[in-house]
Structure formats: C-alpha cells, structure tokens
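Please fill in the sequence for the structure shown.

STRUCTURE ENCODING:
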C-alpha cells in the first residue's frame, strides 16, 4: 500500500469518529469533502477515502452522503466552497490542504473539520498543538511541507505564513 493511501484511509477513520460523535440526528450523515484540486487529479485520494469509510462501516449512498466541493486549483474559491458546505449543514468537513483547512475553520467553529495532509499546523497557527489541536479542527499531518524543496509555492498568496 502506498503511503498516501494509508494517510487517506486514516482520514476515513477520523471522519468515522466525527460522524459517530455528532451525526446521530440525521437519517444519513453528510460529509463535506473540500478540495483545492479537481476531481480527476484527486481520484486516487477519493477512492482511498471511500475505502477507509467503508472499512469503518460507511458506504457512500447507503448510509453516508458525501458533498464534494472542488476549487479546481483556484484557492480563492475555497472560502465560498467551505461556506456552501456549512450552509448545507454537513456533519463534518474533510480537507487535505492547508488552504482548505483555513477556509473551513474560517467558515465554521462548530462543524468538525478533519484534515489530512502536510505542514506544520502549529507554526501556521491553525492548531494549538498536534496532540490537542483545540477548536473544531482535528486530523493528522505528515509535516512534509518542510521537506518540499519548492517551499510555499503550494499555498495561495493570501495564506498567512508564520516565521
């Protein structure tokens, strides 16, 4: 199994925990999937995400719904897409980019946001600490951003950089 597949499977487990904690009031819980990319480029990640959910008893269309929002590489669209998911009253928002995390936590302080991706989220000011992120943000990070030789070119210019 590839490392990225394992990470996404783990995110599915995190979503499962969030759904179990707060989605009992609806007939079918709804996950908001917020991506800075396009459906085509994200297909392997989405498949691994669905697999992780399925391994934890959630099958899309049967006992869980997923609302996908794609920024198509236009980071400026993320805040509106996150607000759209909040307006739909999804039970949890899943996102794999730092910009997606920022958009999601700016859009809501009550809906759980589960992240999966890289970056030092403490240094970026998104979480209080990795062991206890605080607020409505949880998930995991590989902190691989620090290993990226191209630096911060993956992030939009409006995203604040600490340090």
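FILLED IN BY: designer on duty
SEQUENCE:
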């Amino acid at each position: 199994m590839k490392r990225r597949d394992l990470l996404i499977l783990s995110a599915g487990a995190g979503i499962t925990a969030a759904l179990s904690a707060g989605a009992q009031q609806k007939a079918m819980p709804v996950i908001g999937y917020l991506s800075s990319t396009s459906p085509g480029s994200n297909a392997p990640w989405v498949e691994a995400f669905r697999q992780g959910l399925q391994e934890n008893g959630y099958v899309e269309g049967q006992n869980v719904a997923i609302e996908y929002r794609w920024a198509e590489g236009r980071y400026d669209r993320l805040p509106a897409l996150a607000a759209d998911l909040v307006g739909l009253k999804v039970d949890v928002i899943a996102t794999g980019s730092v910009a997606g995390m920022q958009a999601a936590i700016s859009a809501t302080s009550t809906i759980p946001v589960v992240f999966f991706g890289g970056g030092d989220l403490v240094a970026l000011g998104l979480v209080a600490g990795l062991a206890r992120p605080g607020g409505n943000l949880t998930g995991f990070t590989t902190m691989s951003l620090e290993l990226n030789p191209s630096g911060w070119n993956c992030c939009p210019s409006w995203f604040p950089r600490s340090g």
